[in-house]
Amino acid sequence: ITFDDGTRATFENVSPVLRQEGLPATLFVSTVHLCGGELLWFSYLNALCFEGRYQEVTVEGRQFRLATLEEKKRARRDLGAMAKQFQSPVTFVALMRTAYPLPPETLHEYAGMTSDQLVAAGEGDLVEIGSHTVTHPFLTGVSPAEQTREISESKRVLAVLTGKPVRYFAYPGGDYDGAVLARVRDSGYEAALATRPRRVGPGRFEIGRVGIYSPSMLKLKLKAAGFVEF
């Protein structure tokens, strides 16, 4: 079982269950939001759209209403697409954050894990900490130098915080190509996980995963039975 991003809420909700049931898992953690750092760019968008701080926002001349659930979902989808098309989702959200700041209680709810939580999560052999870059970019959309920094720096920071080697990597958003895969391999990881393998390199750097994004038990049973594409 794997969990991405390294939010505080994930740790607080998941960790007790894993230990109680004895379920091995890997937490793939992005490092920029750890220990009181800035929210991950998509966490900010989630909070902005769904937490009711604003009734509407205007971005690049487009107005997004946030009154009803359908409006919130539409705004989140469209803002996410705009962020992806922008030069950098992180820069896109940084500009939005200046215009639409969020209150401390909302920032806390969407924050990354603390250093103490990272240490606690990595204690023993049940839960392993893996890397998910620094800022969770779309790796194929940044420069080779930025790819290397995102991949290597997160590994270094997590190793320092946990006191353990960081062996595994997960591609943010499942976004990678042969060049990104090579940089992950050259950064000293033993393996990497993908949302959908693209078969552009060694298999251990394209380990596929089955995403569980719905509370539907029927969908979960179908996926567990092998009907993933369906």
Q: How would you describe this protein?
A:
This protein has helices at 8-21, 41-50, 69-85, 89-99, 104-109, 115-122, 144-162, 178-186, 217-224; strands at 2-5, 25-29, 56-59, 62-65, 127-131, 168-170, 191-194, 207-208. The chain has 230 residues and is of the alpha/beta class. It has a 3-stranded parallel β-sheet. A 3-stranded parallel β-sheet has the order 6-7-8, covered by helices on one side. Helix 1 (8-21) links the parallel strand 1 and strand 2 (25-29). Helix 2 packs antiparallel against helix 3 (69-85). The radius of gyration is 18 Å and the shape is globular. The two termini are 21 Å apart.
Question: How does the SSE layout of this entry go?
Answer:
Blueprint: E1 2-5, H1 8-21, E2 25-29, H2 41-50, E3 56-59, E4 62-65, H3 69-85, H4 89-99, H5 104-109, H6 115-122, E5 127-131, H7 144-162, E6 168-170, H8 178-186, E7 191-194, E8 207-208, H9 217-224
Parallel strand pairs: 1-2, 2-5, 6-7, 7-8
Antiparallel strand pairs: 3-4
Helix pairs in contact: 2-3, 2-4, 3-4, 7-8
